[in-house]
């Protein structure tokens, strides 16, 4: 039985790292965020692009070392689609093991996961929780196109297919990581949600997006995990705050003023026991990162907490139900700046925990 997870302003990381060696990436993660380590994408490798890494198993997908596309005009497409849904039902009905299905991550496509998994087996002290990740269904569905350059999210059948693919890949991660008998967090990266409501996505309804979230979250919940959504920009925050997502990860550094425009939803989200992951360390603009310190970012966080407190949200509840993270991944930064992000994240978490988590909390408690 996986124990209940207590966030308590622990630190974890988001997305990518600017390295080429998965072993070194795991070392860095364990050094700075040993309480909630994760497996990182290393985008220097073509197979670890945000979209392409999770395309294996998608019917009709073709790639010639570029971004690839789904070819619904191919002679084999309908056969591939039928096989996909047969495999899906076989797993759902228990006739095929998830580990041996098309939905399991493979070492060729996700070396970071398997390096991370092997490293976890060697730890003398287990982490408090472990974190997996993948591209979210909206970003994936609007980023992958068909042979006519049309995002597959606009085709109901293709949308259903990609959502089921991601749901099962998330479920596989939660299933594998749960063997450690520690709480499992699975984050869906959803940068494209910044475009919700824009002219680019006017024909996509909030209902369609919410249904996608419900399906992928349910898959994680079936394996006892917690489902998170990471958005590194502004969006219609009611979409995620009112969904079955357990953790909302947001860019608190740049977009807190937009986020707090949803006070009723934030309050209800926290009252239901869910978690906010504060992306308080900037990663998207080098000049911002270069000027910030632990002290300056703690001051910013204090200001933001005070604003939530003024809405009637209890500070102790808030800190108990918060994580501290960077605003996004560090894959586009230099290694020195990436290390600064990791160090700031760790040190801010430690300072907040010393200040707010009464009496201190022993590792694993």
Quick synopsis:
This protein is α/β, with parallel strands linked by helices. It has helices spanning 22-32, 77-92, 111-120, 137-143, 156-177, 206-222, 238-241, 252-259, 263-271, 286-291, 294-309, 315-320, 335-356; strands spanning 10-11, 61-62, 69-70, 130-135, 184-189, 226-231, 247-250, 275-281, 322-326.
In terms of topology, how is this protein built?
Layout: E1 10-11, H1 22-32, E2 61-62, E3 69-70, H2 77-92, H3 111-120, E4 130-135, H4 137-143, H5 156-177, E5 184-189, H6 206-222, E6 226-231, H7 238-241, E7 247-250, H8 252-259, H9 263-271, E8 275-281, H10 286-291, H11 294-309, H12 315-320, E9 322-326, H13 335-356
Parallel strand pairs: 1-9, 4-5, 5-6, 6-7, 7-8, 8-9
Antiparallel strand pairs: 2-3
Helix pairs in contact: 1-3, 2-5, 5-6, 11-13
Structure explained in plain terms:
The chain is α/β, with parallel strands linked by helices. It has helices at 22-32, 77-92, 111-120, 137-143, 156-177, 206-222, 238-241, 252-259, 263-271, 286-291, 294-309, 315-320, 335-356; strands at 10-11, 61-62, 69-70, 130-135, 184-189, 226-231, 247-250, 275-281, 322-326. A seven-stranded parallel beta sheet has the order 1-9-8-7-6-5-4. A two-stranded antiparallel sheet has the order 2-3. The two termini are 15 Å apart. Mean pLDDT is 94; it is low at 360-365.
Number of helices, counting only DSSP H or I runs of 4 residues or more? 13
Helical percentage? 40-55%
Overall radius of gyration: 20 Å
Low-confidence stretches: 360-365
Q: Give the percentage of residues in beta strands.
A: 5-15%
Class based on secondary structure composition and strand pairing: alpha/beta
Largest sheet: 7 strands, parallel
């Amino acid at each position: 039985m996986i124990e209940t997870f207590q966030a308590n302003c622990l630190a974890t990381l988001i997305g990518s790292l600017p390295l080429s060696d998965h072993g070194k990436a795991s070392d860095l993660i364990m050094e700075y965020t040993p309480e909630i380590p994760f497996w990182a994408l290393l985008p220097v490798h073509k197979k670890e692009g945000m979209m392409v890494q999770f395309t294996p198993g998608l019917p009709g997908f073709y790639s010639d070392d570029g971004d690839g596309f789904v070819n619904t005009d191919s002679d084999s497409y309908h056969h591939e689609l039928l096989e996909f849904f047969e495999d899906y039902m076989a797993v759902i009905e228990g006739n095929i093991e998830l580990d041996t299905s098309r939905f399991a991550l493979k070492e060729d496509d996700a070396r970071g996961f398997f390096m991370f998994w092997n490293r976890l087996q060697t730890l003398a002290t287990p982490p408090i929780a472990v974190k997996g990740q993948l591209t979210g269904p909206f970003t994936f569905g609007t980023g992958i196109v068909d042979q006519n350059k049309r995002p597959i999210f606009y085709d109901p059948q293709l949308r259903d297919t990609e959502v089921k693919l991601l749901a099962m890949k998330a479920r596989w991660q939660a299933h594998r990581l749960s063997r450690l008998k520690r709480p499992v967090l699975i984050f869906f990266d959803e940068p494209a949600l910044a475009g919700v409501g824009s002219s680019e996505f006017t024909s996509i309804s909030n209902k369609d997006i919410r249904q996608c979230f419900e399906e992928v979250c349910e898959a994680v919940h079936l394996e006892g995990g917690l489902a998170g959504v990471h958005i590194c920009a502004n969006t219609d925050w009611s979409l995620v705050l009112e969904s079955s997502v357990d953790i909302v990860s947001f860019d608190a550094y740049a977009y807190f003023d937009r986020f707090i425009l949803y006070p009723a939803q934030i309050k209800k989200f926290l009252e239901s026991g869910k978690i906010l992951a504060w992306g308080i360390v900037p990663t998207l603009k080098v000049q911002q990162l270069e000027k910030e310190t632990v002290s300056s970012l703690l001051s910013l966080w204090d200001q933001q907490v005070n604003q939530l407190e003024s809405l009637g949200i209890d500070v102790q509840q808030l800190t108990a139900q918060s994580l501290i993270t960077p605003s996004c991944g560090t894959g586009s930064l230099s290694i020195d700046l990436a290390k600064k992000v990791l160090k700031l994240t760790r040190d801010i978490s430690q300072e907040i925990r010393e200040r707010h988590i009464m009496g201190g909390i022993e590792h694993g408690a």
